[in-house]
Write a structure and sequence with these properties.
The chain is an all-alpha fold. The chain has one domain. It has two helices and no strands. The protein has helices at residues 3-6, 9-39. The longest helix has 31 residues, at 9-39. It is rod-shaped and about 50 Å long.
């Protein structure tokens, strides 16, 4: 992300959204693993 955006409110909001999506991706991967384990794959 350009330095000019990193320190502004818009850049902060974008980074927060990215962090949230990263957390969701991790949670989805964990759920997927549990489903595969349950299904016996």
């Amino acid at each position: 992300m350009p330095e000019s955006l990193q320190y502004g409110s818009r850049g902060g909001a974008m980074q927060e959204a990215i962090d949230t999506m990263d957390e969701w991706e991790s949670e989805i991967d964990e759920i997927k693993s549990r489903i595969e384990e349950f299904a016996g794959d």
